[in-house]
Amino acid sequence: MPNIVDPLICNWSAAEYYIISENLLGNFLYYSHLFPSISGLIIAIFVLKSNYRNKAAQALLFTTTMFSIWCYMALITWASERSDVIMFVWSAMMYPELLMYVGAFYFVYAYFRNSFPGAKIEMMIFLMFSPLIIYGHTKLNLINFDFTNCERNATEGPLWQYYVYGFEFLFIAIILWLTITEIHKKNHIAREASIVATGILSFLLLFSWQNIVGSFFDNWKIGQIGLFGMPIFVALLGYILVRYQTFRVKLLATEALMAGQLILLISLLFVRTIENAQIIAIITILFFSVLGVLLVMSVRKEVEQRQQIQKLATNLKNTNEQLKIVDRQKSEFVSIASHQLRSPLTAIRGYTSMMLDGNFGTTPEAMREPIGRIHESAKLMALSIEDFLNVSRIESGNIKYDKVDFNLRDQAEHIVDDLRPEAIHNGIMMVFRSNLTSNGVVNADVGKTQQILHNLINNALKYTKQGSITIFVHEDLKLKKLYVEIIDTGIGMSAETISGLFQKFARAKNANSINITGTGLGLFVAKEMAVAMAGDISAFSEGEGHGSHFVLTLPLVN
Amino acid sequence: MNNSTQAMFVRIFLAISILWSVWMMYYTHIIQQDYEILQNPDGIPTFSEE
Lengths: 558, 50
Fold this sequence. Notes:
The structure holds 2 protein chains of 2 kinds. Chain A is α+β, with helices and mostly antiparallel strands. Chain A has 15 helices and 9 strands. Chain B is mainly alpha-helical. Chain B contains 1 helix and 1 strand, in the order H-E. Chain B has one helix spanning about 5-30, and one strand at about 35-40. Chain B is rod-shaped and about 65 Å long. Chain B starts with a helix and ends in a 12-residue tail after the last strand.
């Protein structure tokens, strides 16, 4: 004989699809169970959809899924007239309930640390579940089905009444501890962390409260309010999404509002009495006030930001146009001015040179020094103008390179020979060394390469007051590169100086202290030229007072 | 075997154990009907119209 009570004795109506029962129509139950579970599930799905690799989002969906399964099972225990179904569902409900707490713990853990707890913690959770797995189907879980006075409740045993609630409070404590630790770190997510934790803890505490009220005081009706912890949690989550853009979801609030509205409207169809409709209306107002205000805030913020960005973009475009015009004018000006300056300088240099050579008769001895100075100054000025012209050409893209194969080793040696008298005059030793197995032929513009080497060795001469300058030519056959290293024992450079050395108008910080003139354009021009010829220039120094080391690299021809 | 693989195994094992436990509950309560019913002494529950 089946061990099922006769529902007719107690006037119970039979449930269809396990949850649709005459007993519950017009009752608050459908609303309290279906609204929180469906709205929570929808939001969790949207959150995960927008960021499916986010571990916190994965844990959130798991938690809300467990909550929804629990809500559905709870509805069965309310609606069903069959004692065996109630006994089975009631005993199995512990799993979604506890997994929901585990999921909440995973959510908070992943939210703070961007990972899931490891195998050790998983093992401990497994051990905590083991008594339930072993004794879940026994009388330790549910003692009997209470049929006295037409009750339809299961009498809960120690497993439910103590172990399950102990499990829940342990997880609540762990989540609280995790949050407090995170807030104590005082990092940027401390405020966010406290909101997340407030949401999830109020949800879990209200949930446990409804079960405890039911289990210990046998009042399962008042407890239903506990389920509204879920919308509170979801609303706070919505706030975090909008305020901190945690999951980068912009449409989420709108989607949640639409879904919520639909569920609320449908739920009104099941309500018969005015009082129940009022309760639904109050909860609806609360829910919508929170999400609605958040939505309006976020939309307003976004519109303001967009307007500001548009304004800035227009300004930027105008400024950019103006800058382009100014830059073009500047290049043209420099080019014209340099050309205009160069022609008279050529005349000055030519005539002073002729005067010194005695082409206009013997120059009085007293005149020789002033004329010599005029000649030297004009030469320096011509070099500076050449730098300006080069910069102008590089920037306007008008510089041309006639690449040919030539012997760089020989070129470097010639330049060293040319400059050696000046070095000797300054009391500096100038050494040329080479270590080549190839013939040292590179493919580059001869004139430009000479200019670069002149510039680098001249710089070494300018900045070295005593010691030596070594020019070392070597190669890397594997990389097909030829290197010219210029190593001096001069004033050296700080790391800061090196970082800006190849910029326009860059000069060594300590250059002025030893009275060195220059435009600060030479290295900029040299580097641009080297790069344009598929080479490079790099600079090293162990610091001020420790000498400098420049390396010119050019492509080697086999 | 790295930590996350170990964790995955534990998770799968937990899921299987829970499913087994739920099956045992189904077997006990629905197939075997092995539970007691607490009734009023006369066997017929009192029922109030309220």
